[in-house]
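Entry:
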Amino acid sequence: MRLINGAQNARSSILKRTPLDESELPPAAQELIRRVFGAELGPAEVVDRILRDVRERGDAAIQRYNEEIDGVPAAPGKLPLEVSREEIEKARSEVERSLVEALTFAASRIRGFHERQLTHSLKSFQDGGVGQLVRPLARAGFYVPGTAATYPSTVLMSVIPARVAGVSEVNMTTPVSGDGSVAPVKLIAAEIAGVDRIFRAGGVQGIAAMAYGTETVPRVDKICGPGNVFVTLAKKKLFGEVGIDGIFGPSETLVVADAQANADLVAADLLAGAEHDELATAILLTDSVELAEAVSKAVRESLSTMDGAAIARQSTESRGGIILVDSIDEALALSNEFAPEHLCLQIANAAHAMQHVRNAGCVFVGEHSVESIGDYTAGPSHVMPTGGSAAYASPLGVQDFLKVMSVVNLDQQTVDQIGPPAAAIARAEGLTGHARAIESRLRGQVRK
């Protein structure tokens, strides 16, 4: 891993972020765009075309893009967009029992955490004539990526918080294999999590279907879930027409470690973060030259024996690295500036240092708090803010599926108390109708 000396050098290189829509598409994606659209288009233009087509043509547009982009047979009579109950039941015989048990265990941990979160979340109240009503969303939609690689954990981590929050209907869209099938383990995870309906609709067309609604796919109130650059841009464009959980980019892991840290464990966490994809970010911040050298060596040795080493190697070489800083305090300050998705504290008295953390999706405190467990069975959702959005956004949770309605329920005494200043402000703003509406409720007030 490359070694960078000093905070300023890090800010201008490895910690410098590139806007998502400026990322260059790989050659294979550019060729696919030319074949499907007959033109050289950028990611934003592709997204605009697919959104427009799905909005105007509904199911037919989804079938077209499923076929031309994902290679799915387009005959509606043979392959309906909605996955049947029989397909889901058949999946149980195709997934190893031990994996079903592992998913069920993970679901219980995730559900338990979010039930505790709900008890500390927003509550309805009325006090002094004002208050709020907290209600769950009626219908939420989830996009779950992956065909060659499947992500059952993402199904659990996304859907279960919605179910705990009390969402009435939960739907899911997902890309499918060339034969039109959905990976059995994904179907089982959806059943365990509580998904109501599953639709064959990958990429932008899946997002558009849930945003606009089609003949088959119902419109939802909020769309959640990660995806590639096209999916992310589609969610960004649709924000305002439909609720969006967040704009998610490639995974980020930042480890802060001191001289006492175990180099092998630090390297393991960095490589776990790097293997997500070539655009993932895995960075070590340390004040120890000896640890930096030991971690660099451990990463090289692990890559020589690691499955999927090509992805992790590309990630660590292009977007990863080790930053040498003057102190752990400086490391924590840099971390707050970068606002990583995952922050691992492998330092002395990590629990105490946590009070200095201001921006992160999730903080993993101490060497036993393995980030990878956070991806599966710790409990909090692994859907977290990326791209620096941890400076203002939070991990997915029950709060994302709750909305607040303010309540005003005044009695005559309160109106008499707070009405006159309200009327005075209304008249100062030139809104005589507002003032009269208030004054007509006041006892003993002369109507004007």
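The first helix runs from residue 7 to 11.
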